[in-house]
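User: I'm new to structure prediction. If I give you an amino acid sequence, what do you actually give back? Let's try with this one:
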Amino acid sequence: MSVRFREGVRVSFSDPRRKSIRLSRASSFGAHFKHTEETTIDDNIDPLNDNVGVKDLATMDELTEELILCELEKRYQHDFIYTHVGDILIALNPFHLINGLYGDEASLKYMHTSEPCDQPHVYKVAQMAYKTLLDSHKNQCCVISGESGAGKTETAKYIVEHLLSMCKGTGELEARIIEINPLLEAFGNAKTVINDNSSRFG
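Assistant: Good question. You get back a string of structure tokens that encode the predicted 3D arrangement of the chain. For your 202 residues, that looks like this:
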């Protein structure tokens, strides 16, 4: 897959050696990209076949800030943006599309009737919440936190969509639930230092 970009724009991509390259501006690479506007992203990686680093940081013998950041960076460089810390899910914004990470095929791995999957994913959060709801008959809550531009709004959308798919919600009410967020955001978002269009509704 090839991607074209103009000099000066913000870009993010992974090279064929699977090292993540994130540039504030394309011109930061100077002469390396001076004579070309095209590069290639290696998208042969299977985002649902996690074999890099530690999937659950809570299983590590020692847990320090340095080790956490080291593991997260190692996984992020291979486009594994989700990592568990016990029942907490850490999600890093990849700033580019990761093929196969979402959609019907990925969703099937995390249905409430599916076999347990140890691959960290936002769908797994929805799966565990829904299964606990069915087992305990008690309300469940998913807390999504992060700085502006971290991807909280998108994460909330993925959770809601997966919850609806597990309860086979395809009717008018479910459609309204999915559409309510864009409706609220139509009233106006907030501008922050990081994000010009930051959601105030989550």
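You can read the tokens as a compact description of the fold. Here is one thing that stands out. The beta strands are 2-4, 11-14, 20-23, 38-40, 82-85, 88-91.
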